[in-house]
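Good day; I would like, with your permission, to put a structural problem before you. What I wish to show you is a protein chain and, alongside it, a tokenised description of its three-dimensional fold. Thank you for your consideration; the sequence and its tokens are set out here:
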Amino acid sequence: MSSNKLALSSSLAPPPSAYLSSAINAPLAGLVYVSGACGIKDGKFVEGTVKDRTIQALKNVEALLKEAGLGLEDVVASTIYLSKYTEDFADFNEAYISMFTSDPKPSRTCIGVANLPAGTDVEITCTALQRTGSPAKPISSALAPPPAPFLSSAISTPNLVFVSGSCGVKDGKFIEGTVQDRTKLALANVGALLGEVGLGLEDVVAVTIYLSKYTEDFGSMNEAYIESFTGPTKPSRTCIGVKNLPAGTDVEITCIAAQRSTSPPSIKVLSTTPPPPPFLSSAIVSPSSSLVFVSGNTGSPVEGTVADRTTEALKRIEALLKLEGLGMEDVVASTIYLSHYVEDFAAMNPAYVAAFPDPKPSRTCIGITALPGGTDVEITCVATTRAVSSRRSKL
């Protein structure tokens, strides 16, 4: 097993599937990536309410983190997927709060999705900070909305800043107007938070955009997005359509930024032919964090089946990583978005498994409402770089 990627498992958490690692410790990055956790115990989903399954999911995360000498207090970022967002948010949130008892709370994004594994109602993905350097610190700004009691607006770590899902909120309420207005304000809020630690939108390395009306709103959102990211280097990016967002809003944006360094350079762009659209980078290398953030890849316009497009998407990711002397064995985390989850999961999965040697990355796979160009699969990845000697042998 490579020293830059260590798989974690626990007898107190569900065993890993053949197509993922329950969690991945990335020592060079100083992070642990936990696969999407559901309310599973003894091989089956626990009965009861979404509250029960949320608590069990987080107990599973806790058990895995314990294998790395960590706990829930070390989680710096969480993403929660709810299949019945409107009905379940309050009960889920009560359970979530009961599990995260320490401050600072993680950054957080919570969205409503179309489908989750085996038809369950909640899945939670977490990233934790190892205790090898400076501790995580919460960020707030008078120019951005104050944090809710169950999250930090942003979390600063030695190498990265994790920003919670940002919406078009000002003075305690969602602004009126268009999705374009709310996109601009959401990103202004991100910029205000980053400004508190001497950073700006130019330091953002990875963005995920959630739209509740993807088809109608993509063009307007994108125009505002382009106007906000004016620097020469665009972040890696994934944009998906989801079922629900907070308070019924239409856009939410999650960002990760790189702390600045002078040697090596703060960030580096990877690109292959054909070039990416002008509003994103195909992949961003963050040398200070020893990570590569790869934009969502769809496999379009390949015809055939979802398996064919999955294979093509992963080939494109592999080509990008090769530019940095890396391969699929260096991927530590992946997220798969399927627009026809129930119909396509079984066909997607073998194509996915074939692309990754062991240990497999941590993974989350969800069903969403829309993807770019109406395609059926999009995959985004995070890879770890290698120690210099290992990279030289690969090159």
Notes: The chain has one domain: 6-394. The radius of gyration is 19 Å.
